Amino acid sequence: MSIAATPRTSHLRWAICFLAFLATLIIYSDRQFLSLLKPTIAEQIHWTDTQFGLVSSCFLGAYAVGLLFFGWYIDRVGVKIGYATSLLFWSLAALSHTLVGSVNGFIGARVFLGLSEGGNFPAAIKAIAQWFPKAERAFATALVNSGANIGAIGGPPFVAWILTFGSWQTTFIFAGVAGILWFALWCFFYAPPEKHKLLSASELAWIRSDTTAAEGTAPAIPWSSLLSYPQTWSFVVAKFLTDPVWFFLLIWLPDYFKKTRDLDIKHSWPHLMTVYALVTVLSLFGGWITGHLTRRGWSVTRARKTGLFCFAVAVLPILAVGQVGNWTAVILIGLVGAAHQSWSANLFTTVSDMFPRADIGSVTGMGSTAGALGSMTFIYFCGHILDYFGAGHAQGAYFVLFCYAAFAYLVAFGLQHLLAPKFEPVKVHQHK
Length: 432
What we know:
Layout: H1 12-45, H2 49-77, H3 79-96, H4 103-117, H5 120-131, H6 134-165, H7 169-189, H8 201-207, H9 213-216, H10 230-261, H11 265-295, H12 300-313, H13 326-354, H14 360-389, H15 394-419
């Protein structure tokens, strides 16, 4: 089907994208709070790196379960109810952090948070698939992903300010209240494109301009049968191998600056802000470029794979981070973060490239569950490695961890290419 001219009088789809961006911003701001508050909370509960790694791993394990459940749940009840349910319980989980004061208490609060957070990306990716044509989806996903980066930019100075005037519990109160406000806004504003009263006919035509029967009207693949498709595994394997790098940066980066460069949060926040500012700007380009290439006539497969390979190569300079000064290290780490987020935006988009709209939440949930399980394992491994090397040899410990980051994407790209040589709609099997 030919693609209609882009509508100029209505851009409601970008308002929907902005709501998903806000949810990601709130969630990822809270994710970073615990790592930023690690030294402060340690004065109260005296946790070791291994215990902190255990708390973070329990969160990721619960997040994996939440992703699997919400991927299925959102495909059954729809984006509006699924997203709202996730964020309401997430807000209550954020507030529950103010009631704990022990390692076990934090494990309980983080498990609650992880379970409820699992609806964010399955709902966001499904909403984007409903509201955007294929040529715009990678950029829209990059905009949603940028909420994670901007939350990380604002997190360090916000936490430093809170600790100057209040207690660490105040940060989680802010997060919980913000989540409840978002829940109310989402329930009031969101509806599917065909039912939204504010959507113009021209924008609806643009949204549906490249919809095919395989994507829009094909029956849902039974949930239990999705793992029989190599295309599902192409997403699952890539998420399992590469998601740990992003969680490693979110959780351990403040500790890296403290132990290897003697910069605590009151002195490292400009460096952390700069890292995530670089990630935000460069990752938006990474989300835009593959859509631009598609509009220039490249096939979806060629555009996505070219982008994914370039982003994988862009991570390799992280191997030199221990040999450079503070601000050069910031640039290298920012490049890694931007490459990951560009990779992630395009990887998420491959799900809607290959699967019917009715299955996007389930496949996204499966892959994201694998990513969370991989992250859970790696984050717990990080704590053990750091304790094993000891505080005096943190540089060596972090070099081992950066080596994983450097090569994970190239390995993932190769395996994904074997499993899904082309990003085309799957041929749905006959399921009994």
